């Protein structure tokens, strides 16, 4: 059913106050901080309670309408970015602190509360809510839970998952699960906390939570330490855990590249220490003795200096001193201004591996790009490393090459591609670096059993109503632990071309290498008439399909339509390789002979193919263009009738011989349909002239494009004269939503 029907049903059931549409949708941002392109949603749903949200999701589920839950939109992985065919759900109206239980030490809140509001409520009651992030004033409790947020205090208190006692959520079908229990011990089946924390909304939307509270520390001591090596930093960490009565509250580590850059570029920062050190650590500890705790901290640092673990240290003697030290670490908020277009990574390793991994990462980046800005810092106590890489003139292809270097390093060290930012859209394609195929399959089953008609990263557009997924027969994985994904966009569908597709799709499956999987997308209604409007309509499908393919983590896109309409426009819209059946076939055919003979489905296609030959600069390589005088129904009948196929083969050979007489030595059927009829046999030829099956060619060209990109990092030219300059976000939004 259409999205329009879903929106109508939502408005009728819930009213315009809860369901904003059209001009009623507020003019604001509908994407997070990741830089992933986003669109204004079809509708903005803003429930005031759990029951209203349940009704909303039930209706969306009935109509198959994709839904994107949105919190404070401070995420960095693209999980909250809305597509033009999706509706957004915001719990901004569900922002109440419902209860603080001082006896049990917990707080009940609605998911739309900001983190800062929860922190303030806890503090006013004499407690500490342990989670703390730089985006505390904007990020919400629901969003923090859905990404299992971390922050600076994980070493002491754990991640957001560890702050939960109980949870309430609405599944995609509108059912409400979970109960707001306050017990620490509750072994009564699956724990909804751990299923929903970190699920990024794919299993359900969190509505209310019971959170743990901690006693407020009476004393907090902060120090900046200079160390001679990474090994010294790990010794300091272990000794601090063992010897400081209050334990370690924060342990932030910064390599010299980070500190040098920040002091040079960010105004108002001052160097915490006078000298330069191989490692810098910002350490914080908390205690219950306001007098004895600072003295114990000073004594500990003194021992570390005497033993040579530290080279130098400074201790904050006031709140303003502590803020000045933390300002150096928190200056990362300046990155988008200082390093526009940077590649940012949130990864994790075993603490014992971080030193080697960080050194190798910086070395690899600077070997490949000597002028690269590479900054490394992180939360050492929980193994979380942040890497920033920036090229002053970096193109999108270079960004992808940087990603391959960093994520391959994570894979080799058996780390995690996401430590605290989540998967979202940006990290889907590298999940296989961290998770096994069996784990990914189990995740998919979990999502299916929860009934996710449209989960946050679904991107279920109307471009391709039917898709067929084929995986190579041999279960051989790539070096990264995942298969490369090919999006094949057809101009046909099963309504008018079932006999053709029944032969094409198994053939494609047989062609692909074991390292790849191919998903064929149909177009409904299919392109059945030879007219400029039909080709223009399909060109929009191609461009939108390519954009969707890149957003969903596909490695390459090709159209199985010889006319290649929209090819150049799609190439100018995405960074993944984009190929066309016509271009790939013609260029390969040039390697098989000196002169090409093009043989069209019927005479109406000849003017289109004449333009193609000129577009690709092949006038001197084409001996002629001829056509079989047959209708589309004749071709479909030939797939089911051997007698009809023989009749068409006779016509094909007759016209092919006329092309040979004109000087052609290679025959190119101009379309997937004649290719499958006349070029499908091994060694197909007419009087010794090869008949090119471009379906095979474009599949292998797609595989080769992916492998060449991985080997050499080379992408499409983006210089102005190429016509392939990437669009800005405004241009892309205008095409997707108003084109």
TrEMBL record:
CC cofactor: FAD
InterPro entries tied to this protein: Asp/Glu/hydantoin_racemase, FAD-bd_oxidored_4_C, FAD-bd_PCMH, FAD-bd_PCMH-like_sf, FAD-bd_PCMH_sub2, FAD-linked_Oxase-like_C, FAD-oxidored/transferase_4, Iso_Racemase_Enz_sf
Record key words, sorted: FAD, Flavoprotein, Oxidoreductase
TM helices/strands, residue ranges: none
Domain FAD-binding PCMH-type, residue spans: 37-216
Keyword Glycosyltransferase listed: no
Domain of life assignment: Bacteria
Keyword hit for ATP-binding: no
Similarity comment text for this entry: Belongs to the HyuE racemase family.
Protein name in UniProt: FAD/FMN-containing dehydrogenase/Asp/Glu/hydantoin racemase
Source species of the chain: Bradyrhizobium algeriense
Organism phylogeny: Bacteria, Pseudomonadati, Pseudomonadota, Alphaproteobacteria, Hyphomicrobiales
């Amino acid at each position: 059913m259409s999205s329009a029907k879903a929106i109508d049903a939502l408005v009728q059931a819930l009213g315009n106050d809860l369901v904003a549409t059209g001009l009623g949708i507020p003019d604001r941002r509908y994407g997070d901080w990741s830089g992933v392109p986003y669109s204004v949603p079809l509708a903005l749903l803003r429930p005031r309670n759990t029951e209203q949200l349940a009704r909303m999701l039930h209706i969306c589920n009935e109509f198959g309408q994709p839904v994107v839950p949105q919190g404070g939109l401070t995420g960095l992985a693209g999980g909250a970015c809305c597509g033009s065919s999706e509706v957004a759900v915001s719990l901004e109206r569900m922002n109440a602190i419902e209860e603080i239980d001082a006896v049990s030490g917990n707080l009940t809140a609605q998911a739309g509360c900001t983190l800062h509001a929860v922190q303030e409520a806890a503090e006013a009651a004499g407690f500490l809510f342990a989670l703390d992030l730089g985006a505390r004033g904007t990020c919400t409790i629901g969003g923090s839970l859905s990404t299992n947020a971390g922050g600076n205090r994980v070493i002491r208190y754990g991640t957001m998952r560890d702050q939960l006692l109980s949870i309430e959520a609405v599944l995609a079908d509108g059912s409400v699960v979970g109960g707001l229990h306050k017990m620490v011990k509750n072994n009564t089946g699956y724990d909804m906390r751990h299923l929903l924390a970190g699920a990024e909304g794919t299993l359900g939307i969190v509505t209310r939570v019971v959170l743990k509270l901690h006693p407020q520390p009476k004393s907090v001591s902060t120090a900046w330490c200079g160390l001679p090596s990474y090994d010294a930093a790990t010794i300091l960490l272990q000794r601090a855990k063992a010897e400081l009565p209050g334990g370690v509250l924060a342990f932030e580590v910064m390599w010299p590249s980070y500190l040098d850059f920040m002091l040079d570029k960010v105004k108002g920062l001052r160097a915490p220490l006078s000298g330069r050190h191989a490692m810098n650590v910002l350490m914080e500890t908390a205690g219950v003795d306001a007098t004895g705790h600072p003295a114990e901290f000073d004594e500990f640092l003194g021992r570390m200096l005497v033993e040579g673990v530290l080279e130098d240290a400074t201790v904050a003697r006031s709140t303003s001193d502590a803020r000045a030290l933390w300002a150096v670490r928190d200056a990362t908020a300046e990155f988008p201004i200082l390093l526009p277009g940077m590649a940012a990574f949130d990864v994790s390793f075993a603490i014992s591996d971080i030193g080697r991994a960080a050194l190798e990462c910086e070395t690899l980046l600077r070997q490949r790009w000597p002028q690269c800005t590479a900054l490394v810092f992180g939360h050492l106590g929980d193994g979380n490393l942040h890497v920033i890489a920036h090229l002053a003139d970096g193109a999108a292809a270079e960004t992808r090459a940087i990603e391959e270097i960093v994520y391959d390093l994570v894979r080799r060290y058996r780390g995690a591609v996401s430590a605290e930012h989540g998967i979202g859209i940006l990290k889907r394609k590298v999940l296989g670096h961290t998770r096994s195929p069996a784990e990914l399959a189990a995740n998919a089953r979990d999502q299916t059993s929860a009934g996710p008609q449209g989960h946050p990263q679904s991107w279920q557009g109307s471009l391709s109503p039917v898709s067929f997924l084929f995986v190579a027969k041999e279960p051989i994985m790539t070096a990264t632990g995942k298969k490369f994904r090919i999006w094949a966009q057809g101009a046909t569908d099963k309504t008018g071309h079932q006999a053709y597709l029944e032969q094409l799709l198994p053939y494609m499956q047989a062609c692909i290498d074991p390292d790849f999987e191919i998903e064929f997308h149909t177009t409904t209604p299919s392109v059945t008439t030879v007219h400029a409007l039909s080709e223009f309509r399909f060109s929009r499908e191609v461009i939108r399909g390519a954009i969707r393919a890149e957003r969903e983590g596909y490695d390459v896109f090709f159209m199985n339509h010889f006319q290649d309409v929209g090819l150049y426009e799609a190439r100018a819209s995405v960074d993944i390789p984009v190929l066309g059946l016509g271009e790939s076939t013609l260029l390969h055919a040039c390697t098989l002979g000196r002169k090409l003979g093009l043989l069209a489905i019927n005479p109406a296609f000849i003017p289109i193919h004449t333009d193609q030959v000129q577009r690709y600069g092949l006038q001197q390589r084409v001996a002629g263009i001829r056509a079989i005088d047959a209708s589309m129904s004749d071709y479909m009948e030939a797939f089911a009738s051997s007698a009809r196929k023989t009749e068409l083969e006779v016509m094909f050979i007759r016209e092919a011989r006329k092309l040979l007489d004109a000087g052609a030595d290679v025959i190119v059927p101009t379309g997937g349909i004649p290719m499958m009829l006349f070029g499908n046999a091994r060694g197909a030829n007419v009087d010794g002239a090869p008949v090119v099956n471009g379906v095979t060619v474009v599949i292998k060209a797609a595989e080769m494009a992916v492998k060449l990109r991985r080997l050499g990092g080379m992408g499409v030219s983006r210089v102005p004269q190429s016509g392939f300059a990437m669009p800005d976000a405004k241009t892309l939004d205008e095409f997707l939503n108003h084109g």
